[in-house]
Prior knowledge:
With 324 residues, the protein is mainly α. The chain has helices at residues 8-22, 30-38, 42-70, 77-93, 99-110, 116-140, 142-148, 152-175, 186-202, 205-232, 239-254, 264-272, 281-299. Residues 310-324 have low confidence and may be disordered.
Amino acid sequence: MKILSPWLSFTISLVVFVALFWGAYSQLDWDAVYKTLTALAPISIICAVLMMWCNFIVASLRLHQVMDVCFDSPPEFKELFKLNLLSAFAAHAAPVGPAADFARFAYGKWRLHMASSPLAQSIFMDRLLAFLGLAIVGLLLLPLQILVGANSGILLSQLVIWSVCIAGFSLILIFKMHLTKDHRSSILKWAASFLEVTQRLVSNPRCLVIQFIIALGYSISFSLLFYLLADAMGLTASFLVFLAFGPIVLLAQSLPIFYAGWGGREAAAVATLGSLDVIEPHQILSVSIAAGIVFFLASVPGSLFLWQYRRKSNDGPFSFDAEK
Length: 324
């Protein structure tokens, strides 16, 4: 198990790719996929990388607001942008699903000298808010999906997914009423402290409005990435088509069970965008693969920050001490 677990997310991504290639879409014209990919000009790739950085910037804004609640003196925004670049590179450099979050914790603790407990809380909260934001935006975009021709099965499956995300976050808030810092267990104390932070964040109307705007920017920037790549490949689909399905594809890419989003992103894109009359399955598969390549290229500058932190021998990567 110790040998398999580090490669679990890579294996899952590989299995999804094999299923995608040999399953329902095994009849794809792979020559067409190759020709569509090679139609990308270098300038188009550069523009796509810049758009991916815009997505990183929006994600850094979300993390900055979370840390503003968790810390009296949160790090500067530029440091959080570096942190997200590093985490994106770590997601590609290591086959472990949560590698990005481990890298964010390590950089925050040993480069920015942040306390373990609130740092772990802010990273976890950032992940939850990303999913919650995508769920809310995804629900709001369901009517647009009807407009662009999505079938009832796709609509219903997304309705279930988004409802589960929102219900899960609501259960976390309900659980807060039954958990206090009086527990002897350090893990429960940490959880109680985390839930207090969660409640402070969601009970502030200003924070909620900002988080909603950030969620919109997060989804729109990713949809623009897909649109720019599709346009560079000569596809004529409207931006509204990519906007409608941006949240569900981004959610699949963000799931830590996949290696850097590979497999999940392609499956979601082909299952949703590939089912429309305006885009052929092989075309959207090409766009999704190109997006994965751009994601890697955009993360490469994060490798420059690897030297800025080293693990200390007398301290582990996580501490559940709520008072630390």
